[in-house]
Amino acid sequence: MRQQTAGVGIVTVSDLDDPRVADYVALNDPARRRRVERDGGFFVVEGPVALERLLDDGTWTVRSLLVLPRVAERLAPRLDGLDAPVLVADPVVLEGIVGFDLHRGALASVDRRPAAPLDDLVRPGALILVGEALNDHENLGALYRNAAAFGASGIALDPTSADPFYRRSVRVSMGHVLDVPTAQVSALPDGLDDLRTRGVEVLALTPRTDAVPLQDLSHTGRPRALLVGAEGPGLTDATIAAADVAVRIPLAPGVDSLNVATATAIALHHLTSVR
Fold first, then answer.
1. CATH superfamily assigned to domain 10-111
2. What is the pLDDT of residues 2-15, one digit of tens each?
3. How far is CA 32 from CA 25, 36, 171, in A?
């Protein structure tokens, strides 16, 4: 839980070179940000809703907040006892720091922490979302929002998937990347053994016509993992072949597939309703 302290408060920032804003410099340079955040052991949360979720959660170590004055007022009821500085800057200064016009005016720097143990995601009746080569941060963020909406026990990503804590992913997830546990699996398809040894039934979501329609899938009572792949290529042939069952969402003639986030939401809804 957060430590209660009276020594850290709201600080007005007017200098672009103020060392206290170093975590937020040049947010519009993706390559630099990935390097800085991974090497520095932190990530950036963007948007008032995501910041509210972060502050309400209370389990993450917040390094600092950087916000517009109006956002500081909005967050005021949640700032009591926060053991981190709240840096307040006007729009011109904030834009100069981050490198673009940040309309939401709400940022936080948060310490990274280790991935959740896979065992924490596997429990009776669990539904786990597993990603292979998920390389689009907006799709990744949407998957976390879907996982939260349909009660998935967590998301497990393979080594080729993008960083779910990259700023855009956190924002699109509406902050749910902070409360949906993130685990890791070994490179697929061999990494499916990480799930099978824990008694998990593995379902591969694919638009292939020879896959089992979701509505025809029998309920086994075992924990289930739903495998999803990147936008466009989808799951690899090897991963589909290694799954226990390949499943599909029946589509109208002439439509070959859905966006990965949309397809995942439909599949999670169905699997949740039949648990």
1. Ribosomal protein L30/S12 (3.30.1330.30)
2. 333 333 688 999 99
3. 10, 6, 19
